[in-house]
Specification:
Rossmann fold; single chain; six-stranded mixed β-sheet; alpha/beta
Amino acid sequence: KHGARMAQPGEFTLRAFLNGKLDLSQAEAVADLINAEARAAHQMALRQMRGGFSSEIHAMRQQLVDFVSLVELELDFPEEDVEFADRSQLLALLGSLRQNLQKLIQSFRIGNVIKHGVPVAIIGKPNVGKSTLLNALLNEERAIVSEIPGTTRDTIEDTLVLDGITFRFIDTAGLRESQDVIENLGIERTYEKINQARIVLYVFDVNETSLEEVMANLEDFRHHMEDPDKKFILVANKTDLLVEAPRHFANFVDLETVFISAKRRQNTSVLTDLLVKSIKDMVVTDATVISSARHLEAITQAEKALARVESDIRAGLSADLLSSDIRTALHYLGEITGSITNEEILGNIFSKFCIGK
């Protein structure tokens, strides 16, 4: 009636970007900050919004701009037959930039799970207390518990925030040979969840499981895993039924083992402390961490372009070929901060905002 209207999703942040108050990665961090459900995700988004990541990208981009200008001088004055851009210096720069980009690419693994929740798969044979452990961790009866083996036939998921970090616990079907079609489907899904998980809790009955059986099962799990370096924690359950201390597990040096009674909720705090430590150990203090799939794709493409430049220099190729790939890298780095963008990218990013932000 008086010229007012409802704001579009992300409209105010879009205006801040268009007016140069924020770059595109900072604008995306605003949405991440709004959607953050735990302190770790909140802090990660806040660091990005304050411009640390943007500064790194701008600095790398400027170094490339300075060098590509010298490379293109050679194209403008071909008759001079002079290398304005020192190839050894360019190789040193490329090595440094690729190393920085590779660190950012690697950081996505931890950044993505902090943003969306750390997936933790709870696995083991039937009736070892996996569902009881899930209930103990969540402090509620989330999963059905029964003495009948094979009760859990599908995965059950729930989240828990521990020391500011969101964990997504996944209770899985018991691993065993079965003639039951439905149970076997659940077991197949268990192996899928093992591959998707960042941390795997292997639960076993400490009263009925030998050291040799544990090691054999771990070896079998690793055959199904796409990432052989996945974090495993052994959870020796049902300690309340022990007659004597389990000395045969005292020799574990390569895998962390926690002794608990999920039923009586004894020592579960030791397990949760270990989970938190496992994630914090993966994060380098003050290091830039990326959590956006868009950023990952752009950085990956930029790194590949610089790898081609490095290869071309060593092969002695001409300046025009070097210039083309350097400009490709500049394009992808520019997409991150928004110095190079298009309406489709902007529409996709700002449509995810809530109204009025």
